[in-house]
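fyi for ur records
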Amino acid sequence: MTKTKKIFLGIIIILSLIAITLGFMGAEMKINALAITGLSIGGVAVILLIIFIFNVSISMKSSSKGFEEFYQAGDYEGGIEFYKKIYKESPNGKEKAQAAYYLMTFYFLVNDLDSARDLFGDAEFGIFEDYVLYYDILLDLYDGMVGDAREKYNKFIDLNRNELAERKNILNQIFDFIDDKIDTINIKSDYPIIKDIIERYVEE
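which gave:
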């Protein structure tokens, strides 16, 4: 969140407090003018809040568009630098959580697992928690922690999110391979870790 947005949010909070105070005073003292003034200020605060939420939403969509641009261009390192800056400058909230998720994705794309682990220990992924669970499972499989991975996998499979279908399919194939339910496995993925995982369990 930029400094301007912080100031804007602060103004909304102050106006809301003034509106509530005047409203209560007007009701308690039975002074209609105070109550009406409080309602008017409250209305302004609501309008400003709607504008604020709209701007934050636009900002998140712009961030998402930025991810696609880096991803389609194959500029993963550029994506890392871009989202590192957003993650560092944003306070806790949706914007920071989204930046953390995209940053995690690019770390896996360049196979920088050490940075991915550090981010897992540092970040709060909020509404993107279900999405990064996939990466958490892959790390466990990479480390040979099949039991832990399977527990998370069972939780992941039960998630009611259509956009995770491809990731679920990949994990299904990997666990079927580990459990000897299938003899061969051929997964096409942009994540190098998946190839490393398959090679690990082929050897075992």
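Residues 32-73 form the longest helix (42 residues). thats all i got for now
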